[in-house]
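Researcher: Let's do a round of design. I'm pasting the structure tokens now; please hold your answer until I've finished.
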């Protein structure tokens, strides 16, 4: 069977799962028909488009072309996390910088230490996993940071009135935000291989790779994702003081 026919036939069978999702949503009167339909269609079109681009990119073998998918990946991820942050002014560029730094650290370790070969086939998928998780971390960080600011507004104002500077007051809510963003990655490390078999490992095994080799790469990715989460959260922790407090050491409205 030609490759393109196989690529179309495999997800076609998966439509049964989405019909099940639709049936459950309809039966429970959840009013999610449009969201399910849009999500199903967009998943198919976006991933097929990504597959076509990656196929061309892998054949091109030009490092310069890698900047296009990586730039698009970082831009869309930063935009998505920024929306989760309530489109707060100044947050977008901080998020973009944090995601870029997490990506640079991970790729620097991967390829600087020659852990994996520096080829498009490894750079793009690994970048997707690192940036995708960092995007979730960034959105969660701002969600928790701004929630903490609202919930502890009176305490923060009291701190400032007693002479605390904005960094001291900021630390009260930012540390908890960092903790909240890092816990999901750490919890995943505790259950991986027992409760769940991650996608990369499963994909490699299905493709015929040795289970031990697949597990080795998956462990590498899991550690890299946790590291990327820490870098993202730490970067936003350092950069986000002005988003919560003014230079006059007052709460920003």
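Researcher: That's everything. Go ahead.
Model: Designed sequence:
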């Amino acid at each position: 069977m030609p490759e393109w026919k196989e690529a179309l036939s495999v997800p076609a069978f998966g439509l049964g799962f989405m019909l099940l999702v639709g049936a459950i949503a309809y039966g429970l009167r959840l009013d999610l028909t449009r969201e399910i339909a849009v999500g199903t269609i967009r998943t198919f079109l976006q991933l097929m488009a990504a597959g076509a681009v990656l196929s061309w990119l892998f054949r091109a073998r030009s490092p310069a072309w890698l900047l296009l998918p990586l730039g698009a990946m970082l831009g869309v991820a930063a935009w998505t996390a920024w929306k989760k942050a309530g489109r707060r002014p100044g947050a977008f560029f901080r998020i973009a910088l944090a995601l870029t730094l997490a990506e640079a650290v991970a790729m620097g370790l991967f390829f600087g230490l020659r852990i994996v070969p520096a080829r498009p086939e490894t750079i793009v998928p690994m970048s997707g996993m690192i940036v995708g998780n960092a995007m979730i971390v960034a959105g969660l960080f701002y969600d928790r940071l701004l929630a903490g600011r609202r919930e502890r507004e009176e305490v923060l104002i009291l701190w400032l009135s007693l002479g605390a500077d904005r960094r001291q007051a900021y630390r009260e809510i930012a540390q908890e935000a960092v903790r909240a963003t890092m816990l999901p990655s750490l919890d995943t490390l505790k259950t991986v291989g027992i409760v769940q078999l991650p996608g990369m490992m499963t994909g490699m095994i299905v493709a015929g790779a040795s289970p031990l080799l697949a597990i080795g790469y998956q462990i590498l990715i899991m550690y890299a994702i946790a590291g990327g989460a820490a870098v993202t959260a730490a970067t936003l922790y350092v950069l986000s003081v002005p988003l919560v407090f003014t230079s006059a050491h007052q709460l920003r409205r």
